[in-house]
Amino acid sequence: MIADILPAWVASAEEFGDVPEETLFPEERPLVERVADRRRREFVTGRHCARRALAGIGVAPVAIPRGERGAPVWPDGVVGSITHCSGYRAAAVGPAEAALAIGIDAEPHEHLPEGVLPRIAAPAEIAALTALRDADDAVCWDAILFSAKESVYKVWFPLTRRWLDFSEAVVDIDPAGGFEARLLVADPAVGTTVLRGRWTVRDGHLATSIALPRG
Ligand SMILES: CC(C)(COP(=O)(O)OP(=O)(O)OC[C@H]1O[C@@H](n2cnc3c(N)ncnc32)[C@H](O)[C@@H]1OP(=O)(O)O)[C@@H](O)C(=O)NCCC(=O)NCCS
Q1: Less crowded by CB within 10 Å, the N or C end of the chain?
Q2: Domain locations in the chain?
Q3: Which residues have CB under 6 Å of ligand 1?
Q4: Per the database record, which ranges form the 4'-phosphopantetheinyl transferase domain (predicted)?
Q5: Tell me: the pLDDT tens digits for 156-205?
Q6: Which atom of ligand 1 is nearest to the CA of 171?
């Protein structure tokens, strides 16, 4: 699913089940020593996907520590992103000479819980969902919007090391499978205020992605 919405120069891997904890590198084990079983499984399989994706760009298996505010620490010369949700885990990586940053996010394909939408979307974004619903009411557009903003943050944070609020990006969804996020704050590390991404829905899950090319 995730490969369908990424450019050819990005390598990715996904899993619909979990792999054994033994696949973790020794230095990663302390990161999940005292967490709930569900969290351990998603972390373990997320790291496994990350190493499979790294293999796709010719990078040997390495530990992927957890960096500032939870962002994964990729080997030198690599940018990437990890996501997991119930029944799905994925990672995407690319060479830093081609990409400034990559952000991916997956969610169950279901509507956001009551009360969440007004906290993550501006009135204009909420109004746009009505038109999308009229075009196709089988897609949970509110969840696509949320996921697109998570992908935006996963591109934004590794570059800027700064928080980005949900109100600081305005997402315009194209029903054909794309989206455009307009950043209301600028940062030289990002180099643009318009991020273009893609979305897809398949077998009960949705995914969004942004691969920000260098230059
Ligand atoms: C960090 C965040 C984006 C993760 O998204 P999520 O949907 O909750 O969870 P996902 O499973 O998709 O992603 C989790 C993975 O994201 C990665 N991640 C965590 N923090 C990160 C950060 N600051 N920057 C980049 N990647 C990060 C990690 O790899 C993590 O998995 P791991 O802990 O097993 O390594 C989210 O929890 C968050 O804090 N959002 C608030 C900020 C935001 O979205 N602003 C909107 C801007 S428009």
Answers
A1: C
A2: 1-215
A3: 42-43, 46, 66, 69-72, 82-85, 105, 149-150, 152-154, 157-158, 164, 166, 169
A4: 101-185
A5: 999 999 999 999 999 999 999 999 999 999 999 999 999 999 999 999 99
A6: 48
